[in-house]
Amino acid sequence: MIGNIKVISGTAHPQLARDICRHLGIDLCPSSVVRFSNENMLVQIEENVREADVFVIQPSCAPVSDGIVELLITIDALKHASAGRITAVLPYFPYTRSDKKDRPRISITARLMADLLETAGADRVLTMDLHSPQVQGFFRIPADQLNAAAILCDHLRSTRDLANYVLVAGDVGESKEIGAYANRLNLPIAIVDKRRYGDDDNARATNLIGEVEGKHALIIDDEIATGGTLMEATQFVLQRGALSVEAACVHGVLSGKAIPRLEASPLKSLIVTDSLPLPPEKRIDKVQVLSVARLFADAVRAIHDGSSISRLFR
């Protein structure tokens, strides 16, 4: 029999772990991480976890490689401490964009991450809004993927009059995922058609599929990293006659020059979730953060009880 729920936080996002524990009505299981002068790492679980149902919360954020190694060591420590079941909870999955071999002699690194988690001793994985649906199939252990669309749509519906809005996909690849938002909000869709003319990150918007003139545009994406695609899509739909532009995404990576770009852009607001930690210097007025702690707490409870997780996809 699997014992009580234990939630352990890595060093990546302890606030999310505390919020999940608050919704579950339990205390965070104490653990410690020691980094030695030779850059080796030691993880110690500081209470008994024998036969417990343990959930380790560690999204992928800077420093990414350190976070991955810390997670793997934590899982291995739990395995040798005789935990009853170990679930790796990765609200933002590492290397999720490296999901295919699209050039010679490269790694399909998302598959490697799945293999490493299993090898370390994880019995199952809980994540949210993978960049590509095929990543879920990389696992040979149970892997549940949550979806933040309901949280974002509920917020948009309660804070805005959406009568004159149009949802915009920043590129053709995002157009399939945006359908879930369009169905929930009953809104039309427009798609920015981008073309890449060189072996670099500079894709150019060339066409717009759909109509934005005289409407408020809402750009939807699964994640925003440097914000280059978002800024280009914002300018492009404004040139095509949009009255204003807002954006919403699940994973606010906001790396590199993303924050200065946001501050200087005509984008009115950006809604993200707390799947990743957002430090104070990135919490500018344009950025609003929605919590996914209750969603993950409900999923943790369902996994522990053996009840259906599909009910969370309302």
Q: Could you give a short description of this structure?
A:
The protein is of the alpha/beta class. It has 8 helices and 14 strands. It has 2 domains: 163 residues, Rossmann fold (3-Layer(aba) Sandwich), CATH 3.40.50; 142 residues, Rossmann fold (3-Layer(aba) Sandwich).
Task: Explain how this protein is built.
The protein is built from 8 helices and 14 strands. With 314 residues, the protein is an alpha/beta fold. The protein has 2 domains: 5-147 and 293-312, 3-Layer(aba) Sandwich (Rossmann fold), CATH 3.40.50; 149-290, Rossmann fold, CATH 3.40.50. The strands form 3 sheets. A 7-stranded mixed sheet has the order 10-9-8-11-12-13-14. It has a 5-stranded parallel sheet with strand order 1-4-5-6-7, with helices on both faces. The longest helix has 17 residues, at 64-80. The protein is globular. The relative contact order is 0.13.
Figure out the total of helices.
8
Helix content: 25-40%
The count of domains is 2
Rounded mean pLDDT is: 94
SSE sequence, one letter per element: EHEEEHEHEEHEHEEEHEHEEH
Return Rg in Å. 20 Å
Kindly name the structural category.
Answer: alpha/beta
CATH fold field value of the largest domain: Rossmann fold
Largest sheet: 7 strands, mixed
Shape label: globular
Q: Point out poorly predicted stretches.
A: none
Q: CA-to-CA gap between the ends?
A: 31 Å
Task: Give me the side-by-side strand order of the main sheet.
Answer: 10-9-8-11-12-13-14
| Name of the top-level CATH class of the largest domain | Alpha Beta
Assign the CATH architecture of the largest domain.
3-Layer(aba) Sandwich
* Strand portion: 25-35%
Would you count the extended β strands for me? 14
